[in-house]
Specification:
The structure is a homotetramer. The first copy, chain A, is of the alpha/beta class. Chain A has two domains: about 100 residues, Rossmann fold, CATH 3.40.50.720; about 210 residues, Dihydrodipicolinate Reductase, domain 2, CATH 3.30.360.10. Chain A is built from twelve helices and 13 strands. In chain A, the strands form three sheets. A seven-stranded mixed β-sheet of chain A has the order 11-10-6-9-8-7-13. In chain A, a hairpin with a 4-residue loop joins strand 8 and strand 9. The radius of gyration of chain A is 20 Å and the shape is globular.
């Protein structure tokens, strides 16, 4: 739908393993309906593809896109296995068309404005970044079971957010918690986590995660430096506040989840992708960013399991 | 542009007294370029027209649209002369297609949510409404000179806002002020005003206006009843807040003016108009609302000049 | 109690028409118990008196205090009858000791800080002042019946607040409302009111009153000028905010009433009084301020009844 | 001064190693001036002592107070050496009079209200606590040099705050940072730190520290549970907010430091101490809390140095 609405792109091919679903989407938004993604990538007139298929297929499709010389916007993570990611790394580096990773939060207008003001020096050199990220409720256990665990499934977005501000992270110290979900605990996974990252410039980053939140999707950011603090709080649908006998100045509730909270970000992300494919000079998270986030997620897993800080070298 | 972007409407005719301007717009957004509005209204295939021409032309064009049986979305005010408005009143009442007035603020998502919650009884029966409305800076004196004065040019939006909550206003008490602009004072006009309206149910409404505001477009709404208070404050572009040595928790600045602040409202207004023209059951401000706002603006002028409360009867 | 706690004053005499009450207070806080206020005023060692007796006794006691050469802090209003106030005016002007009126809000730290910043020029020349003042619930009808009406009983505090910022008010335009209380309506009084004042410098002041408020004591102040806006919102007991499924960022409820909201103001008011009596150079609301507030309240009554703006001359 | 002002306590003895200072204080606030603390503790009529002397003297004076059977309110930390603390532990346990540790923040009205609401179950079982604590600027290097390091000098307050909510901490994972102060780095100390604590019930606690803050003393608390979130933000001197061309809704700056921010807490702490000494049933942080905070601070030091989580057993 976002592609169909874009003024600078046209929807050529809709590809879905379920033929009916592909056809229905194509009927609504235009384009040709296909069920074979490789055929879609190589189809005539295709300049770029959006890869939103299950994680295990990402490497193959990315690989095909690179080979076909078409741009690719790929959902995170690239793969759950860093070895498979590394195997693709060299080719991704020399890809003729943009390879962009779906870290949509970099395109959120609120976070982007905070990032711009930090970069403009408003708080001086960044010393501390706090990322709070809580989902309204956990995904079903069946999803969690194949998700790769909280660090690779959920925290990976926050790790990319950290790297947007502190690209060179050198150490990860993570603690995992089992606070409320017997199902998640049964899978050996955590339902909450706290991570402390260290940057090459001595920066500290704290990431606070939980798989549930009674008050909705909790997505906050705080940047601290010698000259001050910048903060993005949660975003409400409207600016209405209420005063009553029980509570005053109340607002909300917040938007439930990412499709609502990041709708503007998704549109801006796609726009940036289209512009990148057209050869314009736009900033976007690339393959290396996808790899780095996965590497940090893996380091967090080791850190949480072994109770020790894990050093990483993202420059290698 | 809004029409061109609408999924439910198509731009048929672009009409502008300046031929070049009409042509350029038509080239960009589609449609036929015309310079004669009457021709445009009567053109084949035209189901509805948006009248955004200078105020003195509104009555004639509205009249033509009603006669042609096409829907009309007309910018406020209908006319500066209530007699000319009244002359059109009967025909407007029996118009075959919707006549909608451009009171865009009723479509603002923030105000609409507050209105919905008041209507839902959250604060009990409405007792008091406070409308604060300040422009960032005054229009040029040349514009002010032909604007009909602050009450008919600026306050008229707030008067419609008042009537959205309190349809039957029975009395207007207005005080005009000359606080900062020698130019406006020279024109015999006010650069600030305070109005107190009384509703048929004993409701009080306060409107506070100023033609300037250092911190941007100031558009606030507050509704009070026995069970509480609902408020819409000013809206910021992003949710970033800043802490520094001089000030903490600072945000903004606010959007400068109405095109930014009410961009969503304009889109929703047009959407409502299109749906109304298609025969759907949607609420919108009509001819009677345009007339009532003008009548209240005139009453405010009398009240301010003569230093007395002016009774009005909007039910006649 | 405030006197007993003051480091610079000693409680000499406790006077209450009810002998038991006077004795009990004196036993707790010290001082001699009396039942005759004139005796108390003239008692040996008394340098100053606090007059918190019923309104009809104020003029006589103030008069006695002036004659005895002792300082007096008198609760508002001086009297409900402006003629009796005027009769005392000359003697008050030449009183040898301070005559202070109990307009405690001038000593509220929040309002005082806003006043200081307006005086320091932060928003430029004051153009508009908005005073919102709502009681949690109306006083009993029996009290209302002898109170002198909403303008002299309740609005008088807000009128003094207006004059603190705009000493020379030239016109009063008031509208009274009967919104919720059959009892108050039955007494011919209003349970809500809106006043617009005009200052000699073209300033506008809006006062919004209601005799009830579901969310507690509503005491807000807003000052507007060419360079910005300063605001004091309601004050909460603690800084706790709550996020839940139903509402987010909620705080409160607010303090119920004036003893809680203005506890600091009462202490600072007494301190200023003691320092004034000791001959120090402190600012405080005096007899003329008490008279001006009453005069404006009377003008508001006329304005509301007759539906017209009433001019006043506070400089005469 | 706090003691002198208390209604329930009398200042008996003022003890200061500097005789002049002791005498001056005694002259102002009353009491006998002494220079030998042991003499003060054993003086006739002394029921309780406040120990605010340098840290190395605490154990001896506490020991003397326990022996003399007088209550003691001792500043944190008890000592920098956990062995010396443990040596006193048995006697402290069987002390005939209250031994209270100066963790003043437990008495802050804002934090206490948040604590009360968590205990009342408003957010369900506590899952996560976030303590943000930044000083406006670092103490002089000379002070830092003998302070015992950031964990024992500064974080110790936050560790006690953590234990107020999560008494049984089982693991400490700390990362120290050197972000801005060459002086502190030269002393081998950290100028910023992040700690993650794990509670016996699976709770997570994050403490974020910095030795500087451009916007004043930064003291925030956030408690998260399955049913919501409670937050205490920073406290401003007054409720004034400002709107201008550069920024809107700005307040502050915040109070610079602890004497201002915690003035109410200090008064309430002393009041609780006095009531405890009088035998009333009041909650207060005792010797075991002082020991636990030191033990956690020591664990944090080991964790930061060795890059590993350190398990602790506070129940032993």
């Amino acid at each position: 739908m976002s592609i169909a609405r874009s003024e600078n792109a046209a929807l050529h091919v809709v590809c879905d393993a379920v033929a009916d679903s592909a056809r229905r989407t194509a009927e609504t938004y235009g384009g040709r309906a296909l069920t074979d993604p490789l055929e879609a990538i190589r189809a005539d007139g295709v300049e770029a593809v959006v890869i939103a298929s299950p994680t295990p297929t990402h490497v193959e499709l990315l690989s095909a896109a690179i080979e076909a010389g078409v741009g690719a916007l790929c959902e995170k993570p690239i793969d759950l296995d860093i070895a498979r990611v590394d195997a693709l790394r060299e080719r991704a580096r020399s890809a003729p068309a943009p390879v962009m990773l779906g870290f949509n939060r970099r395109f959120d207008p609120h976070f982007a404005e905070l990032h711009r003001r930090v970069a403009a020096g408003e708080i001086g050199r960044l010393e501390h970044l706090a990322v709070t990220s809580r989902d309204p409720e956990p995904a079903p256990d069946a999803y969690i079971a194949t998700s790769g665990g909280i660090f690779r499934d959920m925290t990976i977005h926050d790790l990319d957010m950290a790297r947007w501000f502190v690209p060179e992270v050198t150490s990860v110290s993570a603690v995992g918690f089992r606070q409320f979900s017997a199902g998640i605990a049964g899978l050996g996974d955590y339902d909450a986590a706290v991570l402390t990252l260290t940057g090459a410039g001595g920066e500290s980053v704290v990431i606070t995660n939980s798989r549930h939140s009674a008050y909705g999707y909790d997505q906050r950011l705080e940047a601290f430096g010698p000259d001050g603090l910048l903060q993005v709080g949660n975003v409400t649908e409207t600016a209405v506040r209420a005063w009553g006998a029980a509570a005053v100045e109340a607002t909300g509730p917040y938007q439930r989840f990412f499709l609502e909270r990041y709708s503007a970000a998704y549109a801006l992300e796609l726009e940036a992708f289209v512009r990148a494919v057209r050869g314009e000079d736009v900033a976007y998270p690339g393959f290396e960013d996808g790899r780095a986030a996965l590497l940090l997620a893996d380091a967090a897993g080791v850190s949480a399991r072994e109770g020790r800080a894990v050093n990483v070298d993202l420059t290698a």
